[in-house]
Amino acid sequence: MAPKKKNLGEFEQSVLLAIVETASESFAIEIARVIETRGGRAVSRGALYTTLERLEEKGCLEWSIEEVTPENRAVPRRRFEITELGVEMLRQSRAELLNQLKTIDSVLGPGA
Amino acid sequence: MTPKAPPRLPELFLRRCLSNSTVDEIICADLREEFFRRVAAESNSNARKWYWLQAMSVATRVGLRRVVGRSSKNDFPHNTPEKPRIGNGMNHLLQDLRYAMRTMRKAPGFAAVVICTMGLGVGANITIFSLINEVMLRPLPIADQSEVMRVYTSDFSSGVFGGSSYPDYMSFKESSSFEDMATYSFPVAFNLGSTGVADRVSGSLVSGNFFNVLGVNPAAGRLFQPSDDLTVGAHPVVVLSHGLWSRQFASNPDVVGENVVLNGATYTVIGVTADGFTGLEIGSNPDLFIPITMYGTALPTMAGRPILEQRGARWLRIVGRLRDGVTQASAQSEVTTIMAGLAEEFQSNMGTADHPDEPRPVTVLSVRNAAFGARLIDETADRAQLLLSVVGLVLLIACANIANLLLARGTRRQSEISVRLAIGAGRGRIIRQLMTESVVLGIAGGLVGIGFAAGLMQLMVPLGLSRVLQGALVLPELSIDGLSLAFAAGLSILTALVFGVLPALKATNPDLVTGIKGGVGMAGGHTRYGPRNGLVVLQVAASLVLLVAAGRFIDNARSVYNTDLGFEYDGVAVASLDVARQGLAESEGRAFFDQVLERVRTIPGVRDAAYANFLPVSPAGMRSSFGVEDLDPELGGTPEINMNNVTPGYFRTLGIPLIQGRDFSSFDTPAAPLVVVVNSAFAQQYWPNEEAVGKHLYQGEIEFEVVGLAGTNKYRAVREDPLPYLYFPMSQSYQPSVALAIRTSGSEPTTVLPAVRDVVRQIDPTMPVFNAGSLRDQLGSVLAQEQSIAVLFGVLGVLALSLAAVGIYGVMSYTVAQRTREIGVRSALGARGADLVWLVVGGSLKLSLIGIAAGVLASFVVNLAFTGMMGDVQASSPVTFAGVVLGLGFVSVLASLVPARRAASVEPLLALRAE
After folding, report:
1. Same domain, B828 and B728
2. What's the DSSP call for residue A66?
3. What is the ipTM, given to two decimal places?
4. Are residue B385 and residue B365 in the same domain, yes or no?
5. B235 with B284, same domain?
6. Domains identified in chain B, total number
7. Confidence (pLDDT) at B130
8. Alpha carbon of B125: minimum distance to chain A alpha carbons (Å)
9. Average pLDDT of span B779-804
10. Fewer CB near the terminus (10 Å): N or C of chain B?
11. Chain A hits for B54, Cβ within 8 Å
């Protein structure tokens, strides 16, 4: 089934961005820390995990289980990766955001 | 400050709300990890606050998604559907069952071998259990049987389970321990029918209160009342057994009130016993019952004689119901006191043999224990125990095999199990999964076992194997009833749990690294085979014990066959005749017998013929007290001696040597001096170093002159010690019920029997000829019990041996597979095929030798136990022992040859690449 093309919410954008930023270290804990550091506010883990699942349903991300070896850690983790669709939707969000900014500029005047 | 664990309450709540999928496990683990980071970076209380908040938020938000059915599509493939944890117990069980079925389908060969092995073990156990259940456990069809006791009188000479006389019964009846007491006779033969050919049935003489005491109800009409046995000869009434009623009278209730002819006398049927009542001795089911006062009909030779008044005539059995609150022990002491009082008054109640000064011992025994022929009680219980231990041993061997197979499989599944352990499945969870698989296999094996047992029971009946518990009595019908099924179910599940535990523990032993890598150590292999080798040793040892026991019984059966019986049974045909039961008087009877004998002797192929009361070897017999010349009657000089009545030519016919004196002749008429022939054992015991011929025996005023000395043969049992024995001429003591022995010239004596029947029919068309056959066949039924035990043990021994062979084969194949690389290296370095074969065969031999050593030790212990249990079974011969040891060694070599050849054909290059 083709994933629904639907606009991303603000928190979804933050999560996808965090995944891109953390790159190879994009585990749930890291994602939450990045968002918290950048936004300066606490992230609800309930919101985070449901958002991750929603993004997965939308086809914006994929995950895999990190192999457990005696050298790294005892508990497996999920590593998230953004999909092409995710990147495209992020770009689309950016365009929309720019559009919105232009509208604001034209109403209030640049540099307001 | 050491970091504490996250607060338990929110964690529990979180786990309840999430599923047990890998994704949710990881979410929980993430929260834990963050909690510990916060403990380190901030403070414990902050971290706890944070954990509370986040756990609740995840539990509610993610948990809600789970319940409404949206889930992560990309879940880890090996894991389970995500459902809330509520109700997980049942869910897990179902999952485990499904998984177990799937594993069985994936390895059908493995499952089949396990199920069949288990089926064999369990089936053998169910069969033996059903046999024991039938013979020993099933309740008798009488009311409140725990209160019912039997009373026996003994004279010291032959066990404690002797009969009692009617006057003694009347004395015991006074006892206050018993609410009431009844008496009955062993079943005797009756000719049932009016005219034409009569049917031969068995019937018991019983006192009028017999059915009241036992609490047996009628199926039709009424049963006897005390008023039915008041006057000798005055109560011609009969009660039919349910069996005879349905067989002969088509269960017609109108038969009550009709007349039937018993031994020529007319009786009125008054009732039928309830279905299931077959008398008190298992295996001797009377077809009908008549009042004891009618003994003249049942025992024509006793007609007119006051046997109900003779204190010395001990031909009756006694059964009594205890009063409330009276124990077996107090009843025992009361009847012993009564007997002591009687012995003061009556000489006949004193003991004989070596105890002439003591009253005869009386034994009170519960009817349950006495049910299968009193003499056999201890022997039967011991046999039952023996059989159960033997099949238990077979099951043990089967279990060792299955445990071995499961261990091998556990090793193969090591990497699957390690992965599941690594991603967080608990060890308990996996053990439960493996145990579920074992139980599923166990139940399947139990079902196969029930089928196998049903088949085995069908086989046991024609082979007479069920006789092993019961001597030569009637064979019990075998069936699988509820108790046997419960036994089977319990046994299967227990077995499954027992054989499943070790492999499950071992397979989940968390050595994850090696496990995941799928590697199985090479040099370290020995520890890995440890329990498997132990199981093989156990199997070999158990098989050895079983085979030695089997060899012992087979030896024993052979020795019984080779025993010199003291007479020549080949070429002798036998048949029985009973004229009194056809209503012939003594003079008619004598004439009939003389005519039959005369004509039988003229049948072509007949060399000789004679009559006797009893033919050897038969447990039936007669004994009586005699005064012996030169033996002081004051010093217990009237021993009870076994005796027989025979016609002239008997010794010739059976090939019994006449050592001195003469045979009986036609001159030994009732008017002539009374004569007797004694056997050599009698002469040896009473007149050692003296001429027996010419001496005298006495019975009261009557004097018998010894005219001949015959050889001693086996009379009542093959293993008996030389028995003093007396022969009297039938011409001086009329016997209406006789066995006819016919010596033939051909090899197949039964070919003369049709002619014998013709002869009888010509003289009296209504006279039944019964028990016709060859003497050898009749001996066969006496020997059958020995043979049955030997066959049964032989079969179980072979079963054990094959199971052990499969076990050795399995372990060796597995070892070869594990050591492929090592073998490859050896081969590459120049080891020859023979060396490699020896590597494997030698390993197998080493295990077998340890097992054999353990088995030999165990066999000595078991041999001692047997000797205690069955004193008359001789110890295993060294030849048997050596044969078994060599045989087992040979089988273990054979079982390892196939894997050894496989090892020898290993391609070095392939083997090295195998890892």
Report:
1. no
2. P
3. 0.88
4. no
5. yes
6. 4
7. 78
8. 49
9. 72
10. N
11. 44-46
